[in-house]
Amino acid sequence: MNKNMTEENNLQTTEQQSENTVKIYSKRAIFGFSVFFSPVFGGVLLRQNLMDYKMKKEANIVLLVSIGLTALVFIILELIPIINSTFTLVLNLIGGSVLSEYFFKKYFSNEKYEYKKIWKPLIISLLITIPFVLIVIYDILTG
With 60 as the cut, is the pLDDT of residue 9 above it? Predict the structure, then answer.
């Protein structure tokens, strides 16, 4: 009888922990979105993590930093006359590193988390990005 009660208590504790667990976007997802789209995309994912943990002030700071990092990429690319996708990638790597290695580790350091799937933000990011890519391709082709 005592063994059954212990098993029931363990089951209830496990169920409560899984109900209280908030899923977040992984550090890898934040880095990847920052590199392949721009730091603002990774910043939005990190902001969502912080909002899910009721850290609104920190979430807004992360969003502002990610917007600043993205603006910095555009400013640097505007100042350099040669447009090079490798250079853009390097700048995005730096922005992604700031978000994932500094901010993510600062707020989500030692605990184990369950991670959200990235399909929804990936589709949204593609829907936002594809029109811009098509405009650039059209502009290149029409001279």
Answer: no
CA gap 94, 24 in Å, rounded: 22
Which two tokens mark 121?
């933000």
Whole-prediction pTM value? 0.81
CB contact set of 131 (below 8 Å; sequence gap of 6+): none
Cα–Cα distance for residue pair 128/123, rounded to 1 Å: 9
Report pLDDT digits (tens) over 26-44: 999 999 999 999 999 999 9
Q: Any bridge partners for residue 115, and if so which?
A: 24
The DSSP call for residue 80 is S
Distance of CA 122 to the CA centre of its chain: 10
Distances (CA, A) of 100 to 25, 65, 131: 11, 12, 27
CA 44 to chain centre: 6
Task: Report DSSP state, residue 21.
Answer: P
